[in-house]
Specification:
This protein has 233 residues and is of the alpha/beta class. The chain binds SN-glycerol-1-phosphate. SN-glycerol-1-phosphate binds next to strand 8 and helix 8. GO terms for molecular function: heptaprenylglyceryl phosphate synthase activity; magnesium ion binding; phosphoglycerol geranylgeranyltransferase activity.
Length: 233
């Protein structure tokens, strides 16, 4: 069976800790033409704010995924199509590679494996919360990023490799190198996409672009432009 993300071009990532622009609803965001909504964030995430956003998006007809940042915010909701579980390949602490995961499996013995997949993150922006939180080594050359992508795909069988520049636009050469290194895995790119051109520049290499802050800062029209760019690229 083909993974759903094999057919995606665009994901809208909604951070439950961030507000929406005035007048914008979760329904509006779900109707932007994005291929999937991923609900997740790094700081200020609680079970309550996660559950609220998931419930709001569940009323709309778009694939809905949770990306929990820790085991205690995992929401059990039948409306979710699945859980995308980050593992940070360049984390400084093994806690973010397998440690948090071990605790989750230990505490939740009824894990829904049918709906659970992992994302092999390579975190690239040292200024981002996710980088400080996971003590990621972001000082990587293109060939190192490509090698991480190959390790994820070939050695660890990861279906998703996620090049994460959260908050800043990535280096095209590095995204291209990651793209060339991945064959069977789906390459997600996220970070700093703010208009048609920035979306297009990353989507020409990545299989799927992830748009986050733009939805919280600019709203619907800006997000739609990135959806168009992702399908044009
Ligand atoms: C964050 O990759 C996503 O996890 C998107 O990044 O918020 O910079 O768009 P931005």
């Amino acid at each position: 069976m083909t993974a759903p993300w094999a057919d995606w071009d665009h994901i809208l990532k909604i951070d439950p800790d961030k507000d929406l622009p005035d007048g914008v609803t979760y329904g509006d965001l779900c109707a932007t033409g994005t291929d999937a909504i991923e609900v997740g964030g790094t700081m200020g995430i609680t079970e309550e704010n996660m559950a609220d956003v998931i419930a709001a998006c569940a009323e709309h007809d778009v694939p809905l995924y949770q990306e929990p940042s820790s085991p205690d915010v995992v929401i059990e909701d039948d409306a979710l199509d699945g859980y995308l579980i980050p593992t940070v390949f360049n984390a400084g602490s093994p806690f973010w590679i397998t440690g948090a995961h071990k605790e989750w499996v230990r505490l939740d013995r009824d894990l829904d494996w049918e709906r659970t997949s992992t994302e092999a993150y390579i975190v690239m922006n040292p200024e981002a919360d996710v980088a400080t939180y996971t003590e990621a080594d972001c000082d990587l050359e293109a060939d190192e990023v490509a090698a991480y992508a190959t390790v994820a795909e070939r050695m660890f069988g990861q279906e998703i490799v996620y090049l994460e520049y959260s908050g800043t636009l990535g280096d095209e050469e590095i995204v291209e190198a990651a793209s060339e290194a991945t064959d069977e895995s789906t390459l997600f790119y996220g970070g700093g996409i703010h208009d048609y051109d920035s979306a297009y520049s990353m989507a020409q290499y990545a299989d799927v672009i992830v748009v986050g802050d733009l939805a919280h800062e600019e709203g619907i029209d800006a997000v739609r432009e990135t959806v168009d760019a992702a399908s044009d690229a």
